[in-house]
């Protein structure tokens, strides 16, 4: 009997993980409104009692899933970064990678939380600071990947613009597959970004 | 007795208008999930019977409100366009105007519908084509305002990138007032766009 040999702590961790994975899946499939604690416990194969013990309310569950999502987003990005080429084509590789990242199911689940948090104060309290932290980390990573100097005028704003652009493309992708259009746009943006980051401010006017 | 002199057709138009205005307001204040037909009829001051006669279901109401929103979005943009300066500073004025447009309550209501439509097939059927049409019209208007030639390589993609950027900024603005950051980013974007649109493709490499 293997089960009895698994320490309690490990079984708790696995159960919580299954509940949060199920929550993220349901957010993607059915949206925030369609995600209920009953569906989550069914999907996770966890009893209602155990679920209620770990996450007494829907918001508890969803807030835990946000943190879980944040961790997924972080490791997704790091894995993608490891595959990037060095040298020529680097800028395009970085922006295409960011574009794909913001078009993934992880972005969709985050979008559901983000929009729900707009009109739910208790959710807002948890999602707001998390999104700020993730935003700062993504910004720092992008600066590092592009190898640019943020103390130069305009550089910080162009990096922020790149991240807001991929967020907008991510949103456009939620109503239908937008991958071809996205890739064309990001190819052109990478070219423009390379030119702008090489041109000292003022010389272009 | 003025009321009895108002033609039936006009009273119907006003009632429908009030129901749709109330729907848009509630989408902004409470989100898609928090918008109920009961709240709409209370807010609009229209009897439940009359409301159900015009819009039998929540989706009927919300889909009508989407078309209504589209019309509001169109006239908002046209009014903003009329205030734009000619000549120098035009590009920045255009992108800042688009930025403000996508940070308005009208964008927020559209975002609620957009996200709800992702997981609601009947809503998706109505919202998808509308968003495509609005997207095409906004694209055409932006081309015209910037006075650029879409047949030149890269121009179409940079205009699309500008619209996806302001959509991303609009989304960022829903969790808190992001106006200062947005204006800084768009100032830099306008500068970059001016430089890129004046540089023939290939010369920049």
From TrEMBL, chains A, B:
Keyword Ubl conjugation included in the entry's annotation: no
DNA-binding span(s): 36-55
Keyword DNA-binding belongs to the record: yes
Swiss-Prot/TrEMBL keywords: DNA-binding
Pfam families, per database record: TetR_N
Domain annotation HTH tetR-type: ranges: 13-73
Classification via Gene3D superfamilies: Tetracycline Repressor, domain 2 (1.10.357.10)
Family matches, as InterPro entries: Homeodomain-like_sf, HTH-type_TetR-like_transc_reg, HTH_TetR
Family matches, as SUPFAM superfamilies: Homeodomain-like (SSF46689)
PANTHER family associated with the record: HTH-TYPE TRANSCRIPTIONAL REGULATOR PKSA, HTH-TYPE TRANSCRIPTIONAL REGULATOR RUTR
Name of the protein: TetR/AcrR family transcriptional regulator
Annotated organism of origin: Nocardioides ginsengisoli
Lineage, top ranks: Bacteria, Bacillati, Actinomycetota, Actinomycetes, Propionibacteriales
């Amino acid at each position: 009997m293997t089960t009895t040999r698994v320490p309690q702590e490990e079984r708790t961790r696995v159960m919580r993980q299954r509940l949060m994975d199920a929550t993220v899946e349901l957010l993607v499939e059915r949206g925030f409104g369609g995600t209920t604690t009953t569906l989550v416990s069914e999907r996770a194969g966890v009893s209602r009692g155990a679920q209620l013990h770990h996450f007494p309310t829907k918001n508890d569950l969803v807030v835990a899933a946000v943190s879980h999502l944040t961790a997924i987003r972080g490791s997704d990005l790091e894995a993608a970064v490891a595959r990037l080429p060095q040298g020529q084509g680097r800028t395009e590789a970085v922006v295409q990678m960011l574009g794909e990242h913001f078009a993934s199911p992880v972005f969709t689940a985050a979008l559901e939380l983000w929009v729900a948090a707009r009109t739910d104060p208790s959710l807002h309290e948890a999602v707001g600071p998390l999104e700020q932290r993730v935003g700062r980390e993504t910004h720092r990573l992008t600066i590092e990947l592009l190898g640019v100097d943020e103390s130069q005028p305009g550089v910080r704003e162009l990096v922020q613009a790149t991240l807001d652009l991929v967020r907008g493309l991510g949103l456009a992708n939620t109503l239908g597959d937008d991958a071809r259009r996205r890739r064309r746009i990001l190819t052109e943006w990478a070219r423009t970004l390379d030119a702008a980051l090489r041109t000292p401010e003022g010389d272009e006017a």
